[in-house]
């Protein structure tokens, strides 16, 4: 799996706007005006121009493109046309390129779907979160269950690969309700699911003042592992489940330390061993894109051992894990050996039984943090 | 100096009955200390003493007083420590006096230590002046308390002075009574020198200062003196009296109280109770009553940060200069690393020492649960003195175990008699006697294992009697008991920090409570961890810490990767501070909580 991405480049575009801010969300976004959006689009254009100068003939070849946020579906058809033209101007999207977009049930329209189809977009990730109105309301989401169902149908009918995000650990979320949401989205033909435990992260309203009723989602997560595998969706990463071949190749690029060119405020990219981040604040970003230094606010370059440790941690998020052949070819043997010997102290049933590969079992994925903590 | 103009006296009281406040008033009235310079409780020189309202270290003071008869007197007040841990020091202070003020709280009445101290004073042949203090309190009932003094202690209280140190009432009466009632010292100024060391302190600037009471003969600057217990000679460099700060004088004659500085290097050469005599004309025999106080309570002191081991050692050495009753020797613990096994005169002494190390020397330390010394006869006819659980021989090699016993006296309102007796029974006490001192007040006496007493007896007594009980105890030697060492095994590995000694009948219950506590405090690991308690090879309790089930953050893209890595690094750093026993990481809290395991189990 990882070899496939050897010489690939992935591109991430962060759309930093939302209709309103959800109390649990730690992503950077702001409530936008039309002026903000056009300022953003022009800045994005400058940013991509800046980057293109580092590429042969000013063309950036990409194997995956991911437009996330924020809420990309907040853009009108007109704004989307502009975004597409900015991207097309400098990106070479290869044949078979995975192009994903994050969509919000409350703001996705038929116009969006038509435009995306025309452009060649392949994959829509819908932020369903739950199919229960009380849970959606508690989360402060703008959509209800019917809206989500309608969006699922429309996207599927438009022929896109369809992914849904669901949250567990919500107040009052019984096992029955969790099952309803899981089985519900499956009925609409989703072939990819991202399951996230509600996290109370610092810097968010709920991080500062936690709501009542949030719980350790062990039973929910465990049930999803069992249920989805029965339904033919394989857990290919700690939070990701998909039908065969329908995994998100863009995300896999993160987990194998592939090059990701990140565009937009607060976006994080990774280039030839250097991880960088863009200015987070909207106006800082706008100004920075006019400068000669571009939108980058900072970077980190891990020393060899840390980098290898991170590589092992990220790879073991996925079901393919660490391929010993590839890792020994790529990394310092001594360091890798010491990491693997640290892992050997961990009970065997937390790993899948595969030759020449170190990967976590379903049980291992449930305690990933405790394992990674040992080798970080 | 004219012996007839000297009065040496001390103040004895139950804790909190106002001893220090009375002392302060005496200093004020005699103009010994300028009232503008008065800080509360002048004689409690340690910050800690003022804070806790207890006296640890005695500070003597000399007062000049012109009595109503127009004559000038020198009154030497020898303050005494107010806690049972320091019983021997109290007895030496008393030995330096001819009289004692027995201070009794007008509201509380006679308490356990009132009686213990009064008995000691009687034993030392002191003239005792009862003072009923705090008569300003609304709840004061001086007549009732006078009656108690007569009924319970057996002293004539008809002439008891009614005082309120707080309001300055009765202070002059006290001074007059001292002049009239307390006998002046007797002694022969031409006899060979005999001076009692009733205290010795280490002064950072002047070295060892010995507080002495001259009994016979005269001590002078430049004199060559002999300390009779240690057999060492010193040249007296300075002699003085306490005002209450040091004031040099040329000589001290019989009956006088003061200090000497004689180039004594350490407190180990200046034992309380030793007799100072003239090196060239020594006294035929020392003054009676010398005893080398032996530590009875032990515990381990370990630095919180391992690198601070040498800092802790230095601090202990310095503390020992100030307090020779502390003993310590290095020890190692699997769990806590390098530290010291320290011996103390009692529980309070231990707590105070710990607190002083923290405050005066800035040492943060972990103290292990206190324990006592056990004497063990082995089957082979040998003898072992066990200071810690690991000193215990294998269970099959033990013939008999003896543990230290105290005779405990509790004063308590009659409605709490049942509770106190129940507590004493639970603590393996052996009933000795019970007397109704009055219809409302009862004295209960038990023989109790010291080990049970030091765990939490005082706290429990306080909570079960709402603070109305008072206690006193004395050491009564050793008694055979069916004691066993309970070991704790974590995933099959012995964790010595958690092993303990207890009565065989208690081993199951206490084993349960320790393993339960550990189960709570040791975080889940990636594998199941059995925690067992065993006596010898026999496992008596087993609990399992189930394997961790879930520990995962669900998403990880882009910038999450770095945030996540930093979070993991932080967690790892936290785990590093944990002690590993076998493969199991055990947080510091587990060790700390173990020290308190007894506090919570009965709740």
In short:
The complex is a heterodimer of chains A (376) and B (603). Chain A is α/β, with parallel strands linked by helices and 376 residues long.
Question: Could you please describe the fold and organization of this structure?
Answer:
- The complex is a heterodimer of chains A (376) and B (603).
- Chain A is α/β, with parallel strands linked by helices and 376 residues long.
- Chain A contains 15 helices and 16 strands.
- Chain A folds into two domains: 3-255, pyruvate-formate lyase- activating enzyme; 304-375, Orthogonal Bundle (Arc Repressor Mutant, subunit A), CATH 1.10.10.
- Residues 2-6 of chain A have low confidence and may be disordered.
- With 603 residues, chain B is an alpha+beta fold.
- Chain B folds into five domains: 3-181, Rossmann fold (3-Layer(aba) Sandwich); 194-278, Elongation Factor Tu (Ef-tu), domain 3, CATH 2.40.30.10; 297-367, Alpha-Beta Plaits, CATH 3.30.70; 374-481, Alpha-Beta Plaits; 484-601, Alpha-Beta Plaits (2-Layer Sandwich), CATH 3.30.70.
- Helix content of chain B is 26%, strand content 33%.
- In chain B, strands 11-10-16-7-8-15-12-13 form an eight-stranded antiparallel β-sheet. In chain B, strands 2-3-1-4-5-6 form a six-stranded mixed β-sheet, with helices on both faces.
- In chain B, helix 7 (309-322) packs across helix 8 and helix 11 (507-521) packs antiparallel against helix 13.
- Chain B is globular and about 95 Å long.
- In chain B, 47% of the residues are buried.
- The model of chain B is unreliable at 597-603 (pLDDT under 50).
- Chain A binds chain B through residues 12, 194-197, 199, 216-218, 221-222, 238-239, 251, 254-255, 260, 262, 266-269, 275, 277, 300, 306, 310, 313-314, 317, 345-347, 350, 365-374, 376, and chain B through 525-527, 547-559, 561-562, 565, 568-569, 571-572, 575, 583.
